[in-house]
Amino acid sequence: MAQQIESANRRAMAAAAATVILWASAFVFIRSAGHAFSPGALALGRLLSGSIALIVIMLITGERFPARPAWRGILISGILWFGVYMVALNWGERHLDAGTAAMVINIGPVLIALLSGFFLSEGFPPRLMAGISVAFTGAVVVGLSNSNGGSAAALGVILCVIAAVCWAISVVVQKPALAHASALQMTTGGCVVGTIACLPFSGQLVTQAAAAPATSTLSLVYLGVFPTALAFTTWAYALARTTAGKLGATTYAVPALVILMSWLALGEVPAPLAWLGGLLCLSGVAIARSGSARPAMTVTSPAPESSPAE
């Protein structure tokens, strides 16, 4: 029994790691696609690509529609996380420098820990709270290292706060819904709902796609298939097997990975302060995920798991 729990924990950690890496890569590709696509068109194109990939996978694996009790979580997370979040984040980054935007968005894991503590009865474990504090400090340091002394526009800050709130609420409603749906079902449903919510931007997408360079279009497709279709599925897989607060804390590793990826892909040499912030982020994640021998609530889905992460 202990070996089974340990094996499940390792799989959940591997899924969480895949999510963090792919979400970090999205920052590089959003920059590439953002030159040719407006925030709404970029969100719709990304979600449309992701929906097509997920539906194809569901057809191949024979997955069915999720049970009715899961649809509340699917609809809420689809509208808020797949829809509002992506548009707000794309729009917010047009008014904020990257460091400030990352700093504002990183209130998300704090909100997840607080909401899950209250509404999912996960409580407030001291190590989790300590890890979040260290990681959030690291995110602030990363933001300051990249701010270049610029002032953040109020609209950009508001949009990024909206995105963070949508993310946190969606995670909390996803957690119980995963008792009735597989990770693939949850992600496919949310992505399709988000695509429908973003259909008002279809005119912009058609017009801008016709004029966009191939690199921007390929970046958009990448965002849909990997950081969306694959990463949101591995996220749901991990969420079904650990607490929302602890999983949310792992995303503090994203700023550190973004620093490294930007350095390698864009030639942006990070400042010493950014390295310090990245180290704090990773240290906070390690603290948050340590010290708990008791297994987290495990969700058994009625439908077989058919996650791309497996």
Computed Rg: 18 Å
The end-to-end distance, rounded to whole angstroms, is 21 Å
Low-confidence stretches: 292-310
What is the succession of H and E elements? HHHHHHHHHHHHH
User: What's the overall average pLDDT, rounded?
Assistant: 83
Number of helices: 13
Instruction: Characterize the largest beta sheet: strand count, sense, and whether it forms a barrel.
Output: none
Task: Give the helix level as a range of percent.
Answer: over 70%
Strand elements, count: 0
Can you tell me the overall shape? globular
List keywords for this structure.
310 residues; 75% helix; single chain; disordered C terminus; globular; mainly alpha
TL;DR of this structure?
The protein is mostly helical and 310 residues long. It is 75% helix and 0% strand.
Report on the architecture of this protein.
The protein has 310 residues and is mainly alpha-helical. It has 13 helices and no strands. Helix 3 (71-92) crosses helix 8. The two termini are 21 Å apart. Mean pLDDT is 83; it is low at 292-310.
